[in-house]
Each structure stands twice: as structure tokens, then as C-alpha cells.
Amino acid sequence: MSLTLCYFPLKGAAEISRLIFAYTGEKYEDKRITSEEWKAGEKAKSPTGGQPMILLEGGEVYSQSMAIARYLANKFDLAGKSGEEKLHADMVVDAIKSDMAQSLMKAYFEKDEERKTAFAGEAKEKINTMLELLEKNCVKGDGTFLASGTSWADLMFYNFMTDVVPLANASMSAGVTLDATPKLKAIHDKVQENPNIKKWIEARPQTQF
User: Fold this and answer.
1) pLDDT tens, position by position, 34-93
2) Using DSSP, how many helices (H) and how many strands (E) does the chain show?
């Protein structure tokens, strides 16, 4: 029995886990649950009442997006080679998820145009500052955040730049680019050029979010 990843028919919070599966080539079931199915009974299966969820080989079910992605990173040797490397990767992932992605999403989903403009300006400033810090302090390898090679931190950064930033740039002129951060661009491009990632991006269902 293979692992089963459950989420709505979106990229969203499950895409980092899908990218880990894609990069490693590990087999899994990509189960996409409609809102109707979720309300009709799937929600009751979640230990914390939300998605994504992962069903393990033994039948156990776990939820929470970062817990699942971290579990997969450890299981498939993408978490780091030492305790310190794992800490470094987690630090980068948290910066991307908590500091950058959430600030953009806050602005993206704001309905009031005046508040949306203000939030977008705040998000752009926060993201540019964080990109500078990541570029300066956090790239330890050749096109990777870790000295030992590719990790889930690289996949998380690729996910952010590929699936989150284009939405923000198109809808609220966020203007987020990697023009001033060549080390980060090298990380993004290295993931993008991976054959398994290329195959997944071409094959995955096309959704806005």
C-alpha cells in the first residue's frame, strides 16, 4: 500500500508535498477531494479538522501541511544530513511560508481595494527584505540552501516563486523578482530544470491556486 496524499483539487498547501514526491520519484496516490466530499464525510477523517491529510501504509491518518511535508522530507532524505542542516532547512521553509507567502496571500485575498493596496506594499517590502537576507545568509551550497545538496527548502522556494508569486505579480503588481538575488535564482532554476519536476509541472492538473 502506497502513501495517499489528500487535498482539495488545488495546488495550495499540498503542493510542497507533491513536489517532494515528484522530485524523489516516490509512488503515491494524489487524492483530490471536492468540497462536497469533504463536507459529506472526508472532514471527519482529519485529526485536526483540516487538509491536507496523509494516509500512511499502516492506515494511520495525519494532517497539517508542514508536518506532512517535513515527514516526507525526512522519509525521502530531503531534510538535511545533520541536525544543523535540518534546522537550517526548517528555518528557510518557515521564512518562506510564514514571512513571505502569508504576507502575499493576505494582500491577495483582501476585498477592500484600499487595504489591498496597503497590504500589497507591505508584502513587497517584507518579501524583498527576506530575499536579500536569504541570499546573503542562507545559501550554503551550489544552487542549494544546504551544503549537502537539494532539500525540501529548495522545493519550498521553487513552490513559492512558481505558484504564489505569479498570482501576486499579475493581480496586484507586486513586482517580486529574483533579478537582484542570483544565488536564489540559481536555486529556483536548479529545481526547475530537474527532469522529475519538469515532468510533474507538465502533467499536474491546471488550477489557479
Assistant:
1) 999 999 999 999 999 999 999 999 999 999 999 999 999 999 999 999 999 999 999 999
2) 10, 4
Strands 3-7 and 53-55: antiparallel
Instruction: Assess contact for 134 and 92: CB atoms under 8 A.
Output: yes
CA angle 173–178–181, rounded 5-degree value? 140
**What does residue 56 show for φ and ψ, rounded to 5 degrees?**
-80, 170
> Nearest 5 degrees, angle CA 50-CA 160-CA 112?
70
Class of domain 83-201: mainly alpha
Provide the 3-class DSSP secondary structure of residue 29. strand
Q: pTM of the predicted model, to two decimals?
A: 0.94
Q: Which residues contact 68 (CB under 8 A, 6 or more apart)?
A: 5, 14, 17, 52, 53, 54, 62
Dihedral (CA of 179, 129, 134, 136) sign? positive
Q: Which residue has the higher pLDDT, 168 or 48?
A: 48
Query: Are both 3-76 and 83-201 of the same fold?
Result: no
Q: May I ask the CATH class of domain 3-76?
A: alpha beta
Evaluate whether 85 touches 76 at the Cβ level (below 8 Å): no
